[in-house]
């Protein structure tokens, strides 16, 4: 059923990577700006730095992958994509292309303000950094949302034609962004569990990620429920991920169980003792690596299932 | 402009309001009468396909292929066969397909570069291959699967009602070649055109009207049965698309 799909792995990879980068910038910006109010165990700057250094790279790689799948690129007109930037219109792809430009520029500058290993709050880049953090929160949200709007804009693709899809992509982007920061922290931060209070950053991230995954499960429930309760095109389309559908196993096992339920349950196991009983937060290094990895796998599989399911289904009848 | 005097009455005000309204009405009526003066209406080319006269001979598909040198494996115009039923209650229908040149073309509204647009002069939806970057968004948006990526230009391509012929007053190639004279082409907005008279005197349908695209290709007596239609579950139905995409989507 996949032989005549127009958008394949490059687009799926782009949706995933752009979501990851957008989420990382948004989370980093909000952590930096909210950190002044405390609550991150003096780790807010470090967490914001991981997010800032992570954000531009996946978006740049993903955007590059987009160009690979253009028909013009395939026949050797490697720079024809420039035509995108000779105009602007209300097509979600046009808006998105300009947004990506702004995002990449701002996120690169933002990463630059964190570049030095001994950057700290109040150093010479502080004003610029805070301004770019203010810019990054809406920019990240816009990039994450537009990918869902882009798919959702077409009645001819009933699986995608849902207002909840953009919301789903946004929540998934934020969740994968948090996971990216968690993963970098687990891999590169060597003293995160030694001193008391040092686990605070991990706790905040794990707790937010658990909350985001909870929201994501809710949005998925709404997406499926409203599609299934209707009749006609949308109901037929959503049946591709319901029992007996071609993508059902991948969706329910890959996205829901591995990508959402598994990480949220593990996170809750470590978060709840502190949340309810104010115990010290501690999670072994292995868990701090495993959880973000499965969240990222889930985020990728979600884009995979959505992009293919939308193209495998269409309006019913002729 | 009336100079307000202290002795102004309620009747004066009402009279003046009336005059103002008359001026506004004249001004807003101007563009319309100017348009009528140049003798025109908005041309919207369209097509009626009388499937009762179609024998599924593919002459239109072949004429289209040769008119545009359409690359192998791609189709701007094609004919689908629908077979259904169980002996002795069976039927076979032919459904010639092409771009519907919609009045609300979603391919146009999603195009990020403006490469695809609906021509103001004749309502034909065209693609400018010099601008198109081949992002395939229009191919996702089209409910009729009318578009493909031309492997030579790398741009989106589709039926354009033979715009180069139509501009010279010649009918499209498929219309010209149809041995059954199943295709009628013309200006839908000209009440005297043949197509307008045929549309007025026949029951016609369009494909997938629920998509809201307002197609300008109409069918007489078309079989809208489809494999994906739940109404035909358990019944023999087979659609042959005669193109690379073996199933309708």
Structural account:
The complex is a heterodimer of chains A (318) and B (249). Chain A is mainly alpha-helical and 318 residues long. Chain A has a single domain (9-312), classed as Formate dehydrogenase/DMSO reductase fold. Chain A has 11 helices and no strands. Chain A has helices at residues 9-35, 44-54, 56-68, 71-74, 92-113, 126-152, 163-188, 200-229, 233-238, 248-277, 285-312. Chain A is globular. Chain B is of the alpha+beta class and 249 residues long. Chain B has a single domain, classed as Alpha-Beta Plaits. Chain B is 26% helix and 20% strand. Chain B has helices spanning 10-37, 59-68, 106-110, 137-141, 163-166, 173-177, 194-201; strands at 45-50, 78-86, 89-97, 116-118, 125-127, 148-149, 156-157, 183-187, 204-205, 217-220, 237-240. In chain B, the strands form 4 sheets. Chain B has a 4-stranded mixed β-sheet, with helices on one face. Chain B is globular. Chain B starts with 9 loop residues before the first helix and ends in a 9-residue tail after the last strand. Residues 1-5 and 20-39 of chain B have low confidence and may be disordered. The chains are: A mainly alpha (318), B alpha+beta (249). The interface between A and B is large, with 41 and 44 residues.
């Amino acid at each position: 059923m996949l032989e005549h799909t127009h958008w394949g792995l490059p687009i799926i990879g782009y949706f995933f990577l752009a979501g990851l980068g957008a989420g990382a910038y948004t989370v980093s910006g909000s952590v930096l700006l909210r950190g002044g109010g405390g609550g991150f165990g003096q780790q807010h700057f470090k967490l914001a730095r991981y997010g800032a250094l992570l954000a531009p790279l996946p978006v740049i790689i993903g955007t590059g992958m987009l160009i690979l799948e253009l028909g013009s690129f395939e026949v050797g007109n490697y720079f024809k994509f420039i035509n995108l930037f000779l105009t602007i219109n209300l097509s979600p792809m046009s808006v998105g292309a300009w947004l990506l430009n702004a995002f990449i520029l701002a996120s690169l500058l933002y990463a630059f303000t964190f570049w030095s290993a001994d950057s700290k709050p109040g150093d010479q880049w502080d004003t610029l950094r805070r301004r770019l953090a203010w810019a990054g929160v809406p920019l990240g949200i816009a990039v994450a949302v537009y990918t869902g709007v882009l798919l959702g804009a077409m009645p001819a693709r009933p699986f995608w034609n849902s207002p909840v899809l953009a919301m789903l992509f946004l929540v998934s982007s934020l969740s994968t962004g948090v996971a990216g920061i968690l993963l970098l922290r687990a891999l590169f931060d060597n003293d995160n569990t030694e001193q008391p209070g040092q686990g605070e950053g991990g706790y905040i991230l794990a707790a937010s990620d658990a909350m985001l995954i909870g929201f994501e499960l809710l949005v998925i429930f709404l997406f499926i429920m409203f599609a299934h309760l209707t009749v006609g095109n949308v109901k037929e389309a959503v049946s591709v991920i319901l029992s007996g559908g071609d993508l059902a196993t991948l969706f329910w096992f890959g996205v829901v169980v591995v990508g959402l339920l598994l990480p949220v349950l593990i996170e809750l196991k470590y978060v709840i003792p502190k949340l309810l009983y104010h115990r010290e937060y501690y999670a072994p290094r292995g868990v701090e690596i495993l959880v973000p990895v499965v969240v990222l796998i889930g985020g990728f599989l979600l884009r995979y299932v959505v992009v293919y399911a939308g193209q495998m289904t269409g309006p019913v009848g002729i | 402009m009336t100079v307000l005097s202290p002795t102004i009455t309620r009747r004066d005000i009402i009279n003046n309001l009336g005059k103002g309204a008359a001026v506004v009405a004249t001004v807003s009526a101007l563009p319309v009468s100017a348009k009528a003066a140049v003798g025109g209406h908005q041309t919207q080319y369209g097509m009626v396909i009388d499937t009762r006269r179609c024998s599924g001979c593919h002459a239109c598909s072949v004429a289209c292929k040769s008119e545009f040198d359409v690359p192998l494996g791609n189709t701007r115009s094609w004919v689908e066969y629908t077979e259904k039923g169980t002996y002795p209650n069976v039927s076979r229908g032919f459904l010639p397909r092409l771009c519907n040149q919609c009045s609300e073309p979603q391919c146009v509204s999603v195009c990020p570069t403006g490469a695809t647009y609906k021509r103001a002069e004749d309502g034909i939806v065209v693609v400018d291959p010099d601008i198109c970057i081949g992002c395939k968004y229009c191919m996702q948006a089209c409910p009729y699967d009318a578009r493909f990526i031309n492997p030579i230009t790398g741009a989106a391509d589709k039926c354009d009602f033979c715009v180069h012929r139509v501009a010279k007053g010649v009918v499209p190639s498929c219309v010209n070649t149809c041995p059954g004279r199943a295709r009628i082409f013309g200006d839908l907005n000209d009440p005297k055109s043949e197509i307008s008279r045929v549309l007025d005197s026949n029951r016609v349908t369009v494909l997938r009207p629920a998509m809201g695209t307002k197609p300008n290709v109409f069918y007489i007596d078309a079989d809208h049965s489809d494999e994906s239609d739940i109404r035909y579950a358990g019944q023999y139905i087979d659609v042959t698309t005669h193109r690379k995409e073996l199933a309708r989507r």
